[in-house]
Write a structure and sequence with these properties.
The complex is a heterodimer. Chain A contains 6 helices and 12 strands. By secondary structure, chain A is an alpha/beta fold. In chain B, the strands form 2 sheets. Chain B has a 6-stranded parallel beta sheet with strand order 1-10-7-4-2-3, with helices on both faces. In chain B, α2 packs across α12. The N and C termini of chain B lie far apart (68 Å). The chains are: A alpha/beta, B alpha/beta. Chain A: InterPro entries: FTHF_cligase-like_sf, LUD_dom, NagB/RpiA_transferase-like.
Chain lengths: 217, 479
């Protein structure tokens, strides 16, 4: 008999007999319907409490703020999506105050060392956020691959205020995650961190040292 | 480094709990490190649940886990089907050795020489690093705490904070000696050095091995909870990702995950959520530009299906590995994680390990508790840990065949002398004449009572027998 069958048979024929299935009442996770303003306020408070940085922007001026952020960091370059409107807008802007724009359009194998060692910052879109925990929802794809939000030391995420949900449960229901998930999905709540050395917080242990959120209101 | 503490917990004699506990209690550094860390974690947890109806949330957590366990075989089949559809290969292992062989075979098929690892307690349980090393495959831990513990050739002393027993100075010396970094008490510098070294390893590793926090049957999704990003690196950069997990980790849907995640991170470290919640539902697709080409899941039984047989012991399998029970345990806080000599230390280890190693080897585990009940009070899924400790104590001394042996090593601690004394005790208390005779004889000869009563009187004064029995006194009062 295969190990699979051995295990499943032991579980099916348990000596204690059939187990009762309890009711699960999820109402304890439900929050009152927060206004957009309250969601933004809570999101900002939560993500700042874990060293994230929030900038309030509008459609008209987010690029100005981005340029400032990158200048203060002395970023030499910025990894951008090729097809997403964020990337298109940046490329079409032709601005002098932005660093060199890079596009992730080749398989990682062909430029891994460059991505790991030479890219200073990246900008990605989000699939919304979660106010209660200060989290960003990302579904990486071939326009914004998985490593884009992980490897560069500075990750800038663009979040539309209208796509801010109150709780994780609300977000997954609104976006119908039960119907199918992408190969990789993420909640990101702050920059990479560790407290493994004597409980002292240190940022950027493996992923970005800084997470900057541009909220478009 | 002593010979016995090398590589993995298995080489430490679990039976030697008492000498190790004694040594730890007399080690001021261990006492201080654990005390301050556990105090911090307890207060952070309390703050994190402020504003929550915690009892109701814990009830939900318990019910979500119980519901999953009630349908365990069906959920495992559903998970396998969904993962397979998503392109993830599923393997089944009855024990740790088989799980190690599966990982080795996947590595060999890819001609892999190096494995980079994300944090996985199940891989510790399997002693995977040790196994792979013997097969000529280097396995490197990438969680900072695990990395430090591996450099020191030790085992984790806490399931969430593996290197909590070390302070900055020791870590600095260790990294200096093993990796050549400069001596420094600057945690930022030490962390940055580890980042640099590990990034090279991520890029060159052939295979990434990780654990799983929740496996979702409905969507075929493996969820990983972490702060550092090493879990994301491990599951994204190498061409092949192997996830290993216990069979009890499966839940029906993402909605269940939303409840358990709310409990897990707040209970563990007092965080509302961790930096990364990574949900993996498949290998890289043809049009994608990164991610592993192959993803495997190894479902490990290793004693869990035995625990599953018994209605009471089953509650052990609700555990979501947050570590809150150890953070709040007065024994763990004083002796530290290494004293137990087991993969899982603290209260959860005391109720889980006897199933994995047997009550004969783990004989001291169920008794290494004052039954104060703190673990049960903070458990996010309401595992009645004190009740289970009492149950395992009974199992370990039980001798009559009325109770079928449910745990390996059943009755291992039974002493015929002790059993006889208790039999006599029961007989005496059930026979009023004998009882009166016995107690009055005891008061008469009380001068002969020894002033020492073994270990009991090491730190206490021996109680003195009264001059008169309760029966005699009541009689004198005319009642």
């Amino acid at each position: 008999m295969s190990s699979r069958e051995t295990i499943l048979q032991r579980l099916r024929n348990r000596t204690g007999g059939e187990l009762t299935v309890p009711e699960c009442d999820f109402s304890v996770l439900v929050r009152d319907d927060w206004s957009t303003a309250k969601r933004i306020e809570r999101f900002e408070k939560m993500i700042e409490s874990v060293h994230g940085e929030v900038h309030h922007c509008t459609e008209d001026m987010w690029m100005d703020r981005l340029a400032e952020v990158l200048t203060t960091r002395g970023a030499r370059n910025l990894l951008i999506p090729k097809r997403h409107e964020i990337g298109q807008a940046l490329r079409n802007a032709g601005r002098e105050d932005l660093p060199e724009l890079l596009i992730y359009d080749e398989p990682i194998e062909s430029w891994q060392a460059h991505l790991f060692n030479e890219v200073d910052a990246s900008i990605t879109s989000t699939r919304g956020g979660i106010a209660e925990t200060g989290s960003l929802i990302l579904w990486p794809n071939n326009d914004e691959p998985r490593l884009m939000s992980l490897v560069p030391p500075v990750h800038i995420a663009v979040l539309k205020a209208s796509e801010l949900y109150t709780t994780f449960r609300e977000a997954m229901q609104a976006q119908n995650w039960a119907a199918g998930m992408p190969t990789n999905a993420l909640l990101i709540s702050g920059p990479s961190k560790t407290a493994d050395i004597e409980q002292t917080l240190a940022y950027g242990v493996h992923g970005p040292k800084e997470l900057i959120v541009l909220i478009i209101e | 480094m002593s010979e016995t503490a090398e590589h993995t917990g298995h080489h430490i004699d679990v039976k030697e709990f008492h000498p190790r506990a004694q040594a730890a209690i007399h080690n001021p550094k261990i006492r201080k490190n654990f005390r301050s860390a556990m105090d911090g974690l307890m207060s952070k947890r309390k703050t994190a649940f402020e504003g929550w109806d915690l009892e109701t949330l814990r009830d939900l957590g318990a019910n979500v886990r119980l519901r999953a366990l009630a349908n365990l075989p069906e959920l495992l089949e559903q998970l396998e089907k969904k993962l397979t559809e998503n392109g993830i290969k599923v393997h089944w292992a009855v024990d740790g050795d088989e799980a190690c062989r599966i990982v080795r075979d996947i590595c060999k098929a890819r001609d892999a020489k190096t494995v980079i690892k994300g944090k996985s307690m199940v891989s510790e349980e399997m002693e995977l690093n040790h196994y792979l090393k013997a097969e000529g495959i280097e396995a490197l831990e990438s969680d900072l705490g695990e990395y430090i513990v591996q450099l020191a050739d030790e085992t984790p002393s806490h399931i969430i904070m593996p290197a909590i027993h070390k302070n900055t100075g020791e870590i600095s010396e260790l990294m200096h000696e093993k990796t050549g970094t400069d001596l420094s008490n600057d945690v930022e510098y030490l962390t940055a050095s580890a980042r640099q070294q590990l990034r090279e390893k991520f890029m060159s590793a052939d295979v990434g091995v990780s654990g799983v926090n929740f496996a979702v049957a409905e969507t075929g999704t493996l969820c990983l909870v972490e702060n550092e990003g090493n879990g994301r690196m491990t599951t994204t950069v190498p061409k092949c990702h192997i996830a290993v997990t216990g069979i009890e980790k499966v839940v029906p849907s993402m909605e269940d995950v939303s409840a358990l995640l709310a409990l897990l991170t707040r209970s563990a470290t007092g965080q509302h959520i961790t930096t990364y919640f990574n949900m993996i539902s498949g290998p890289r697709k043809a049009e994608e530009l990164d991610g592993p080409e192959e993803v495997h899941l190894v479902l490990v039984d290793n004693g869990r299906s035995s625990i599953y047989q018994d209605d009471e012991l089953l509650d052990t399998l609700r555990c979501i590995r947050c570590g809150a029970c150890m953070n709040h345990c007065p024994v763990y806080t004083r002796v530290g994680g290494h004293a137990y000599g087991t993969t899982y230390p603290g209260p959860i280890g005391k109720i889980l390990m006897p199933h994995l190693i047997g009550l004969d080897e783990g004989r001291h585990l169920p008794s290494a508790s004052s039954l104060c009940g703190a673990c049960g009070e903070v458990c996010p899924v309401k595992i009645p840990i004190p009740d289970l400790l009492v149950r395992l104590r009974q199992e370990s001394v039980d001798g009559d065949n009325l109770h079928p042996a449910k745990v390996r090593g059943h009755g291992a601690k039974r002493s015929s002398k002790e059993a006889l004394i208790w039999k006599g005790w029961a007989w005496m208390h059930a026979s009023p004449g004998i009882y009166r005779f016995g107690t009055s004889a005891a008061t008469k000869f009380r001068a002969l009572q020894p002033s020492k009563a073994g270990a009991w009187t090491d730190y206490r004064t021996a109680p003195k027998l009264a001059a008169k029995t309760l029966h005699q006194r009541m009689k004198e009062r005319g009642q």
